[in-house]
Amino acid sequence: MKNYLISILSVLCIVYSCDTNESNEINIYSQRHYEVDKKQYENFEQKTGIKVNVIKANADELLERLKNEGANSPADLFVTVDAGKLQKGAEMGLFQKINSDEINNNVSKELIDKNGYWIPITYRARILVYSNDRVMASELSTYEDLADEKWKGRILVRSSSNAYNQALMSSLYANLGQETVEKWSSGIVNNFARDPKGNDRDQVKAIAAGQGDIAIVNSYYIGLLLSSEKQQEVDAGNSVSVFFPNQGENERGSHINISGFAMTKNAPNKQNSIKLLEYLTSVEAQETYVNNSYEYPANPLVMPSEIVQSWGEFKIDELDLNKLGTYRNEAIKVFDKTGWK
Ligand code: FE
């Protein structure tokens, strides 16, 4: 009788995939650098009792580490802020596909990875902000237009070593081709208000300080500035307005990127990881993202934060986001060739 019960239990275990090797934790390799993530993982721990451990580094370092650790890696999930890095990891053979109807139903069809290796949790647009004192919205139109001589000495943007700029350049390369992007990049460098330095927030602060008139930044940084506890940051946020480029009828839309997760090839805690991704794409967790990091939600049932909604809706460039990885090396060559430091 006892043996009979044990075999029934083991059959049930196979059917319901209760992996007995799985510990009560999840190990995440994370490139994300936002306060909201800590809150999300704490909420998940409270709900499930599953402990979330996070190791932070930049995306390339984490991918290298996954490669070196191979089948012995303790990592279950890799999360980054760039589809290009996810595509790179998939190409390196570091990930496995995630099959969960719940996750697929939670996220916008437009944001889903066509190859099935990564799950978007949020997205962000790389937009323009302009000085309320020195620029009128009617003067702005496209990313391409920023290379025009009329913007000489007025453009602020961070260094080309930054992944956000590399992704933007990759998208332009994919859309416009090498010759056009090289001309564009030379034009931008010509129009720099100063040598690239600082992060996205610093570009907005430089507009507030009168050092330049237009900055290329990720959308959520404006939400973060406006909701900052530091008055100087709120003032910087209020000194500019948001402009979504390439919105004309025949234009392709503004460049976006996702922040997303991939599951490692040998994830020791696979079921726990799927649970976490189901949670992070749920309405509850998506509301936590939008109201704390000011990113756009991957779940279409959730509205962006009020600040972000106030900028209005915009047309998204529907380029396959994996191309941000495909064209990464070409993009870096363009930066180097045209002197964008
Ligand atoms: Fe960021």
Descriptive report:
The protein is of the alpha/beta class. The chain has 15 helices and 10 strands. It has helices at 2-15, 36-48, 59-69, 83-91, 101-106, 163-176, 178-191, 200-208, 219-226, 231-238, 270-280, 283-293, 306-309, 323-326, 328-338, and strands spanning 25-30, 51-56, 77-80, 95-96, 118-131, 155-156, 214-218, 240-243, 256-264, 296-297. Strands 1, 2, 3, 4, 5, 6, 7, 8, 9 and 10 form a 10-stranded mixed beta sheet that branches. Strand 1 (25-30), helix 2 (36-48) and strand 2 form a beta-alpha-beta unit. Helix 8 packs across helix 10 (231-238). It is globular, with a radius of gyration of 22 Å. The model is unreliable at 9-17 (pLDDT under 50). Fe (iii) ion (FE) is lined by residues 81, 218. Fe (iii) ion binds at residues 81, 218.
Question: Which helices and strands appear, and what pairs or packs with what?
Answer:
Layout: H1 2-15, E1 25-30, H2 36-48, E2 51-56, H3 59-69, E3 77-80, H4 83-91, E4 95-96, H5 101-106, E5 118-131, E6 155-156, H6 163-176, H7 178-191, H8 200-208, E7 214-218, H9 219-226, H10 231-238, E8 240-243, E9 256-264, H11 270-280, H12 283-293, E10 296-297, H13 306-309, H14 323-326, H15 328-338
Parallel strand pairs: 1-2, 1-3, 6-7
Antiparallel strand pairs: 3-9, 4-9, 5-7, 5-8, 5-9, 5-10
Helix pairs in contact: 2-12, 6-7, 6-15, 7-15, 8-10, 9-10
